[in-house]
Amino acid sequence: MQLSCWLSHRPLLWIVSLLLLIGSCTRSPTLDQSQQANIGLIKQLQAALNQGQWQAVAGLYAGQVRYKGPSTRYQEVLLTPTQVVAAYRGGPLEITQLYPAYQHQVVVEGRLRERLPQSICLIYTIEQGRITRQYAY
Fold first, then answer.
1. CA 131 – CA 60 distance, rounded (Å)
2. How many domains does the chain have?
3. How many other CB atoms sit within 10 Å of the CB of residue 119?
4. What's the rounded Cα separation, in Å, for the pair 133 and 122?
5. Is 23 within the bounds of a domain?
6. Does 25 map to a domain?
7. Edge-to-edge strands of the sheet including 130-136?
8. CA–CA separation, 12 vs 16, rounded Å?
């Protein structure tokens, strides 16, 4: 008797399982709260940079920032927020794309709007609401 009951519900279980599988595949990925906060911080950074609000820019960085980029020949160096701000005074940054990466990173594709505009890729590491690393390529 129990076997016939299980067999009679088997097609229903199969259909429900299939619908759950399809539903899980079609959901768009959502960002968790920390990734949303990190993207918001980078948007805030861009706005402050483009408006020349240098104190606001410095306030988004941790006390020491690990930086790597063309100006350091891609060697990692420790900079203060003031030193990072000095590097930004070259021109505004136009973000073309933002990507969350893992829990603490945000990847930014953009263009520096200087005399000779150039594309740039920045990887920011954000810990405890402050930028702790910045890699430029």
1. 6
2. 1
3. 10
4. 10
5. no
6. no
7. 77-79, 61-68, 130-136, 118-127, 105-112, 93-101
8. 6
11: tokens are 């097609």
CA dist., res. 27 & res. 59, Å (int): 37
Q: How many helices (H) and strands (E) does the chain have?
A: 4, 6
For 64, the domain range is: 33-136
- CATH code where residue 55 lies: 3.10.450.50
DSSP string, 20-57: HHHHHHHSPP---HHHHHHHHHHHHHHHHHHTT-HHHH
d(CA 125, CA 66) in angstroms, rounded, equals: 9
Q: Locate 65 and state its tokens.
A: 């920032």
pTM of the entire predicted model: 0.73
Q: What is the pLDDT of residues 81-127, one digit of tens each?
A: 999 888 776 667 788 999 898 889 999 998 877 666 678 899 999 99
Within-domain flag for 122 = yes
pLDDT tens digits, one per residue of 3-57: 455 445 555 555 655 555 555 554 445 668 889 999 999 999 989 988 989 999 9
Q: In one letter, which amino acid is 15?
A: I
